[in-house]
Design brief:
By secondary structure, the protein is an alpha+beta fold. The protein has helices at 6-14, 24-38, 47-70, 84-89, 117-124, 193-202, 229-245, and strands spanning 109-111, 133-138, 152-156, 159-163, 169-173, 177-184, 208-214, 219-223. It folds into 2 domains: 6-89, Helix Hairpins (Orthogonal Bundle), CATH 1.10.287; 109-245, PH-domain like (Roll). It is 36% helix and 18% strand. The strands form 2 sheets. The protein has a 5-stranded antiparallel beta sheet, with no helix packed on it. The longest helix is centred in the first third of the chain and has 24 residues, at 47-70. The two termini are 35 Å apart.
């Protein structure tokens, strides 16, 4: 049975538990859930959210340790800490292998293992130990030069990276994917003269916009003129499969 003091009641709330049915199994499960939720590495590219996550992660660890110690048990044991790196990896999709990606030689689109050197260096700065890069898409029209693209989309076995025109990198785990939409920008109508001229000179079909949401409903990114419609459809289909394989 759990302790009935006010402090333990607050710790139980931190872990989303009800004291009246608290058990060691429930405590361990709640700790793992909240540790994954507030692990700072999930917010590595969002400094403000990361600072808040670090504080919450500490509270979760304290709550777990003190509740464990206050539970009545014939044998006193130390709580089993969950290594931080394990908490990050738990976000891995359930499927052992992500769906394949085929860009059929589209310019600026690269798939594993055929990454130019500049692209490979960018990828190396993002990957975790067990993570594998699947595809890299240049969004900047610069190509994979000496310093690499300024804007890009990186698809890995676990998550999606997006670097925008402000050079801000955002990431989204496949387990946190929300709605993925291919939006007809002309709503079934015809393209205007200006759109046809741009499409003719750029060689990029721009009828559709690819919109990617987080599971909270917040917009993660929108891709329009950066990609040809054929590439948007490849990314759209890949993310839908990755989302399904993640058990969402």
């Amino acid at each position: 049975m759990p302790c009935s003091c006010r402090q333990c009641e607050e710790h139980a709330k931190t872990l989303g538990l009800a004291r009246r049915w608290l058990s060691r199994a429930a405590l361990r499960k709640a700790f793992r859930t909240e540790a994954k939720r507030w692990h700072p590495d999930r917010f590595e590219n969002e400094p403000v959210k990361r600072a808040d996550a670090e504080e919450r992660f500490k509270l979760v660890q304290v709550a777990y340790r003190e509740l464990w110690e206050h539970l009545e048990s014939p044998v006193a044991t130390e709580p089993e800490p969950v290594p931080q790196e394990v908490e990050v990896r738990v976000k891995t999709p359930k499927s052992p292998e992500p769906p394949p990606i085929f860009f059929v030689g589209a310019p600026g689109c690269y798939t594993w293992p055929h990454f130019p050197r500049a692209v490979a260096e960018i990828i190396a700065g993002h990957l975790q130990e067990t993570e594998r890069a699947l595809a890299f898409i240049d969004l900047s029209y610069r190509g994979a030069g000496q310093k690499g693209p300024a804007q890009y989309l990186l698809l890995t076995s676990y998550r999606l990276f997006f670097r925008n025109h402000l050079f801000i990198v955002s990431l989204l785990w496949y387990t946190d994917l929300g709605e993925i939409r291919l939006v007809d920008q002309f709503e079934g109508g015809k393209q205007g003269m200006w759109q046809r001229i741009v499409e003719t000179f750029s060689g990029i079909q721009q009828r559709y916009a690819l919109e990617i949401d987080r599971h909270t409903g917040a917009l993660f990114c929108t891709l329009t003129g950066e990609l040809d419609d054929s590439v948007k459809k490849v990314v759209y289909n890949f993310l839908r499969q990755a989302k399904n394989q993640s058990g969402i």
